[in-house]
Amino acid sequence: MNPARESIELLGQIARIVWFEGAKHGLRDREWMALRFLSRANRFSRTPSALASYVGTTRGTASVLVDELERLGYLERKRSVEDKRSVMLNLTQKGKKVLVRDPVNVLVDAIAALGDEENIRLRDALRHVLDQSDVAEQKQHADVCKRCIFLREDRVSAEGKTSTEFTCRMFRAAIAEDEIELLCTSFEHHRQ
User: Fold this and answer.
1) Which are the contacts of 147, defined by CB distance < 8 A and separation ≥ 6?
2) What average pLDDT does this structure show over 4-11?
């Protein structure tokens, strides 16, 4: 079999672990996907519309999803401090705790067992495939801020110490260093 075709077949089998039918631990696949996303999303992407974009559904369907996760006590809605019309979605302690039982943890453990170098090669290969499909289909996917074209990094010197400050040019807002590792649905990668 062609190695590229075989890779797709293997990815399909792996996807069945992620996209299971029915419910596991009381949650359906889209609910798990929402919890995973919200646990890794930056503050600009923890909104109902960003969640809808990430999950690949309408805002109405995402609203039903949010209602259910809120009813179960896994997330809470809070009004945005910057824009009172906007709602921020935050995982509760119970939501963070349920992610320990996430069915994809089996895959995370299997990939982690590959070792650091193989793990990075696999991640980079999958990212390359996703980037190429985005270009071909003229789509964008969520990714970490540190790879985004909108991230600006400035070196600042004060009192003999140099530090780095980050800014998102898209949202015209400062970003903390730990936020640049989080997912953003407004991500746009650097053009080659």
Assistant:
1) 187, 189, 190
2) 85
The structure tokens 């530090």 sit at 163
How far are the Cα atoms of 28, 64, 161, 163 from residue 46, in angstroms, in the given order? 20, 16, 34, 28
Q: Identify the helix (H) or strand (E) that includes residue 77.
A: strand 75-79
Instruction: List the single range of 19-23, 118-122, 171-175, 177-181 with lowest mean pLDDT.
Output: 19-23
Give the tens place of pLDDT for each residue, 57-70. Answer: 899 999 999 999 99
- Check residue 158 and give its pLDDT: 78
Distances 21 to 29, 106, 124 between C-alpha atoms, Å: 7, 17, 29
Distance, CA of 166 to CA of 164 (rounded, Å) = 7
Which residues have CB under 8 Å from 46's CB, separation 6+?
Answer: 38, 88, 89, 90
**Long-range contact set of residues 90-93: C-beta below 8 Å, sequence gap at least 24:** 90/38, 90/46, 91/35, 91/38, 91/39
Q: In Å, what is the CA distance from 34 to each residue of 57, 67, 68, 104, 127?
A: 11, 12, 11, 13, 20
